[in-house]
Amino acid sequence: MTATQDRPAAEIGKDRRRKEDQRLITGRTRWTDNITLPGMLHMAMVRSPFAHASITSVDTEAAKASPNVVAVLSGKDFGAELGVCINAWPITPDQKTPTHSPMPADRVAFAGEIVAVVVARSAAEARDAAELVDVEYDELPAVIGIKKALEDQVLAHPDLGTNKSALWVFDSAEAGTGSEVDAAIETARADGILIEREYRQQRLIPAFMEPRSVVVDPTGEQITMWSATQIPHILRFALAATTGVPESKIRVIAPDVGGGFGGKLQTTPEEWIAWAVARRLSKPVKYTETRSESLMAAHHGRDQVQTLTLAADKDGKVTGLKVHLDADLGAYIAVVGGGVPVLGAFMFNAIYKFPSYRFECQTVLTNTTFTDAYRGAGRPEATYAIERLMDELAAEVGVDPLEIRERNWIKHEEFPFTTIAGLEYDTGNYEAATRLAKESFGYDALRAEQKERRDRGDRVQLGIGVSTFTEMCGLAPSRVLGSLDYGAGGWEHASVRMLATGKVEIVTGASAHGQGHETAFSQIVADRLGVPFEDVEVLHGDTQIAHKGLDTYGSRSLVVGGEALVRAVDKVIDKAKHLAAHLLEASEDDLEYNDGRFTVAGTDQGIAIQELSTAAFAAHNYPEDMEPSLDAEATYDPVNFNYPHGTHLCAMEVDTETGAVKMRKYTCCDDIGVIINPLIVAGQVHGGLVQGIAQALWEEAVHDEAGTLVSGSFVDYLLPTSADTISFDVVHTDDPSVCTTNTLGTKGVGEAGTIASTPAVVNAVVDAIRHLGINDIQMPCTPERVWRAIQGSKAGGATETPPDAMPHFKDGALNQDEGAGQ
Amino acid sequence: MIPVKFDYLAPTSVEEALAALGEHGDEAKILAGGQSLLPVLRMRLNAPEVVIDLGGISSLRGIRDDGDAIVIGAMTTHHDVRDHALVHEHALLLAKAAAEVADSQIRHRGTFGGALAHADPAGDLGAPALALGAQFVIAGPGGTRTVEADDFFVDLFETAIGEDEILTEVRVPKHTGWGAHYEKFVRVAHQWPIVAVAATVKGSIDEARVGLTNMGSTPLRARATEAALAGASATEDGVREASELAAEGTNPPSDLNGAAEYRQHLARVLTGRAVLKAAGAQ
């Protein structure tokens, strides 16, 4: 038995190396594609090359005759047993929702949609035979892009009669949280400042490292599905709800999963087809997508056009914000597809005190890959819009962008603060984060250098971008989700098993896919229970082990799952105390619990938690009013979101001759409450920053007019590597704003870097060339777009932008006048 | 990603390789370092029945001195070209360009000859080879022949190498003491160049050679620029006029990374920078 004295004093706050990394990094673990079952068959998908077409015939004869092919099945070979892909978040009661069959028999609605599946004894034979399946299509007109979809001339789903799926509205005057925004706009138009802009959130691809993979074994009493998913519990529920198999007969396992970023927060056609094929053939089957398939058919993210009106008085005090979003859902409404842009509704007001606010979100259907959550999900888009607008407002007023923010933000003494969007921010200190970020960044020196380069007319201009972000994370209070018509709750479950030998197993309903839960949760339990870090084992991702849970997304695992864990541990301690009092023949009131040991106050008598575990196991001597077990579980439903925030400062160099942009310095000061493991936080922040920076500078999923994904490989879809980034300056305040709604005082951090960094980078690029008359560059800020903006300003606005460089803007969009920057 | 099934041959001599090529003709593909061929096979963009791997032919590797030229074996890796003393002494431009090929892993697998024979106009080695007036030694059933750089690159992914021939080595005339720079313009480090300029100059500036990457269906030489640079001074003003001529006669592609017009602009700007850096003036 391990002596409790071996345990270091405090685990929370310690830079623990991640205990899961050895197996994850070497790959010597159970990635789904590593799983091989006796008699397992392999599947290959036949996908539509057309964005919109009727399927007139599927000839499978040649494929069936191919070596070692067991079956070739198309949509018409299945009935109800195939199930449907669900939308769990209809955002309005009258939302138009197309039926999403995993493998339609009659009509495909995006390029990459599955029309047939080949099952063979090897993956290579399945792939070879898939090329022999002869599908005949009648091509239908395809609607690509938000602008075209809104016209309703060509329909993504003709039977729906429109491409407009739903309109979701929040209005502060109607909600009683503020005044009428149109009045504020009229006042500003007459005697103030009005900033009107249209911003584009380009479509992105989550591009997780491990392609999606699924194995289904129908040979046991329970049908088991292994899937590279973020959401094994939601997946199990959806399988039961749509395929007629009782939930109790379904076991879903998310083994080690190689990244998700929201891209594996999905219930996929591939999973449903694997499920149906395994049941049809009574054989285990496996499907692992290629990278090309992943880019084409795994869900995409973002894809919005934002029409924005910011009203302010002459001093730059904001009086109102009006937001209209058009959001591209793609061909189907994915599991939380429609809800993602709606999440932004609560974040456009960000850290500011706005007296009036109106938000409208129009979702549209197009013949493209369906969209859904991608790191930040709704919040990066909102943060981008407001942080870009605040920089524009500062330029209009003629003050420093930090100054304009300070005039509008919630002061630290004003917390808790109920926002115009109706959320109650519990804690925050924007002044402190900004002060530290400025100091660490060397703000004043960089501003001086910027001025010097401008005065000198240097070929390379310097720009400084600001982003003072907040986010709502820790999804989510179940009642709030209910009020938004989401199909599930937002609680999390944890249990603690005290093993006979004194080791501890904890079971969490969160489902890690790279976050480091095993390490962070071990640290929490080690401290709270007083056991060595190494003695804690974290179990997750298998619905037979972690029978209850709502999985991992929305920066929720620590703040919701961690709190459930704390509560379960506290129940264990209560039980252990009762047992300890019995064994020590002392009163519970006289017992103190420290470092894993109960001691009787004023004596040298005591007993360790491990000894109590053994005693409970032996059960030779325990109080009559308790069961012989210390195990406990807890389900925690958060009472509020939590609101991490931070000040991000970015310096970009812009080569005015080529338009090339280069990051010079990036500083972020994130206030995320109490930090459990600084190393894991640094990893989350670094990775998050790179993903946000990548939206600003590199990534864009582009479909051509026919609906073919042009950026269909990593040659054209530009993912950055470490060679493209700089060393980030990541700092935290000494005195963080501790979250008041969970025991540990933690706030989420998984999405912070992605949410904050995109506007900081674009603000910096625009700031570098604003003196040339430029006030926007469309994302990603390619060298060509920057160069064209500069050329346009030189020529007095005469440069034409080629259509392929800006395919999505509306004609005459507010800030897209020629030469004003694309 | 699984390629279509193919037969794999691993000859150990050029003669054996030529015999295999003769037997299988256009059903065969030559595998050098595989950095372009394997992705093509795995994405099923091509499905040869036979792949002939030159990796086992040791005579195709290495770099040697041959009087007024250095000779680079076709199977020499980018990494070895980048680091070799003979290359640094006599053809510095090649070392500079080889250092910019993709990433370290690819430079250790990809080969000099393989990249040139693949003839991707966005490849990093074509423009420097052209600028240095390289000669391509090609072995075929009737013996070997030598093709001048100007005649080697025919079109997009097309060279003077016949279907029954193999590129064995490249002779690079010595440019001893010439300064060199390869100016590559990319958005992310591992990307194919949007545009790149290969410049090597003697003195500052007596003579200059300038090659352009991804400015047409083959690597190109900026001859008007070269002519204008002879006798120019290695200053921004001195090279400006010559750089302005760099896009003459080019026909670059338009894609997500830039329209043709933008690429032509880049070629002019980058030429000035490359020449000045080659001359040690920047």
UniProtKB/TrEMBL annotation, chain A:
Domain of life: Bacteria
Compositional bias of kind Basic and acidic residues: 8-23
Entries under Pfam families matching the protein: Ald_Xan_dh_C, MoCoBD_1, MoCoBD_2
Annotated keywords: Membrane, Molybdenum, Oxidoreductase, Transmembrane, Transmembrane helix
Annotated region described as Disordered, given as residue ranges: 1-23, 794-822
GO MF: iron ion binding; oxidoreductase activity
TM stretches of this protein: 329-352
Domain Aldehyde oxidase/xanthine dehydrogenase a/b hammerhead positions: 26-141
Protein name listed in UniProt: Carbon-monoxide dehydrogenase large subunit
TrEMBL record, chain B:
Keyword Oxidoreductase assigned: yes
Domain FAD-binding PCMH-type: 1-177
GO molecular function per UniProt: FAD binding; oxidoreductase activity
Protein name: Carbon-monoxide dehydrogenase medium subunit
Keywords of this entry: FAD, Flavoprotein, Oxidoreductase
Pfam families: CO_deh_flav_C, FAD_binding_5
Alphabetical list of SUPFAM superfamilies matching this protein: CO dehydrogenase flavoprotein C-terminal domain-like, FAD-binding/transporter-associated domain-like
Organism expressing this protein natively: Nocardioides alpinus
